[in-house]
Amino acid sequence: MSPSLIAVLVVALAGALPAGAQAPPAPAARMPAVQMVTGEQLKAFIDAKRKMVVVDTRTPDEFAQARIAGSVNIPAGFVRALSNRLPRDKGTLLVFYCRGTGCTLSAEAASEAAGMGHANLAIYQAGIPDWLLKRYPVETGIPKAK
Fold it and tell me: Within a 13 Å sphere around the CA of 6, how many CA atoms are in the beta-carbon half?
């Protein structure tokens, strides 16, 4: 979108709110800070048994092929629908990962979780390729129902 078109839209929409009303904050203003974690940091969190949920945002088929041990599968775009897989405590650390550098699924899912009120969010950007290269613990197959 061109800068001049954006300017026209801003001017046109400026009078769209009733007098005294305020526009809601931009989504980025509502989004809590998301920390980036490395494979080493995530492994240390897991080894220390830190209270958190590790969320694999890839497809169920990819999740079944190999996943970080103990992670749950919530594909990006399904965070609200599968919110029963997330902790009720919105302050619990959620660490999202996907296919690695260049993949945006973990960021999309973290944004969805933030929109639901989760406030302690992290992304393991290097994702499953890095985890596998480091030979950290993985699980395979379809998880058994608990």
Answer: 3
Contacts of 66 (CB under 8 A, 6+ apart): 128, 132, 138, 139, 140
- Which residue in this structure is represented by tokens 């190999």? 66
Could you tell me if residue 81 is inside a domain? yes
> Looking at the 3D structure of the chain, how many domains does it have?
1
Characterize 79-100 residue by residue with b for buried, 16 or more Cβ atoms within 10 angstroms of its Cβ, and e for exposed: beeeeeebeeeeeebbbbbbbb
Smallest Cα–Cα separation from 72: which of 57, 89, 51, 61? 57
Assess if residue 70 is contained within a domain. Answer: yes
Judge whether 94 lies within some domain. yes
Tokens of 125: 């950007």
The pLDDT tens digits of the residues spanning 5-35 come to 333 333 333 343 344 444 444 444 456 789 9
Predicted structure pTM score:
0.78
